[in-house]
Amino acid sequence: MDEAERRPAVNGGPFVIVACVVERVLTEADEVRSLIRLVDGATVGFPAGLPAPEATIVEFPLVLQLASGDVTGEHQISIVVHRPDGSTAEPVGTVVQFDGAELGVFVEVELRLQVTEGLYWFQVMLDGERELTRVPLRIRYHRPQG
Prior knowledge:
By secondary structure, the protein is mainly β. The chain contains 1 helix and 7 strands. 3% of the residues lie in helices and 67% in strands.
């Protein structure tokens, strides 16, 4: 495949159909997926009388459904995590095959992050060059009264 064939079409795709953080993804026998509990925030609880934790680990899937549009061939989809302090994590991702038109791809990235309180942005990149979208997740700390 030559470079012109791999080049992402800017206005011709791929198109973002779904980009979100969920609690779970169910995949049925016929390959139809159900996204369970779409979330844009998470609350981390900690015991009364103790200081807020410096960081805690959270795990969740980030899912993408992309329609090819004019794009064909293999392309890299990567997720760049932007932390509340402005730093970024190493991108994670996968190679996908676009077959053109309405045909698309489903991507599920299992994220395991050490987080602190604040707003996180998950930047979805195509071939490391073009931003397709961003997905927010706000982490809140909660201390029970008592």
